[in-house]
């Protein structure tokens, strides 16, 4: 089979090996660790593939289970067995759903390991949009930051606004301001357009996750929990209105959310789970 196009091969172990899948939205320069940093500590004897998020516009594109189809189709076309599905933050939603669908196809359920899993809601999208803006302080003016932050606050305050509508509204506000700021910073039109489109794809990724139910997949999951109060199960357990999330096992580590995937002790614990030694861990 040719190299996958909607998965990034983090670790290649030959065409006949099993695959471990990882769901995340990695971007250059983010301060959170990624699966490329976790991979060496897993000591896998199989391939590790990471999601490549499809290019989507939350203002115009339909977002639902069809979002998953390119990922599922390429895994099915490989003919390889999925040994485990991993997920980080909002990617844990995709991990839970992908694991369920893959189990139906291949007849055996892959292991599921999720890192600070998030049920995506309006506050989640709001937080992540704030991080996007925070990463652009070198190109956005204080006035532009204030305008985008104010728009986000106004949208979030609308009674009953759905995450998909919230994400679309955020991107509609960001697109012209972000484009102008990047062009002002000296980027050519094409590259500025790519970066702005990336933000739209990230908003689409979050909005899609908000509409999926990962709980059946999470019931079999090992959850890796950080010490960050506003991340993962820590946040869900203290947020009114969120029903308890049932998981198979939980391992807690005294590290910040951003450091989960770059912490050796976490890699050791996950390696033990993937090797069938669930008693090993933190």
From TrEMBL:
This is Polyketide synthase thioesterase domain-containing protein. Gene3D superfamilies: alpha/beta hydrolase. InterPro entries: AB_hydrolase_fold. It comes from Streptomyces luteosporeus.
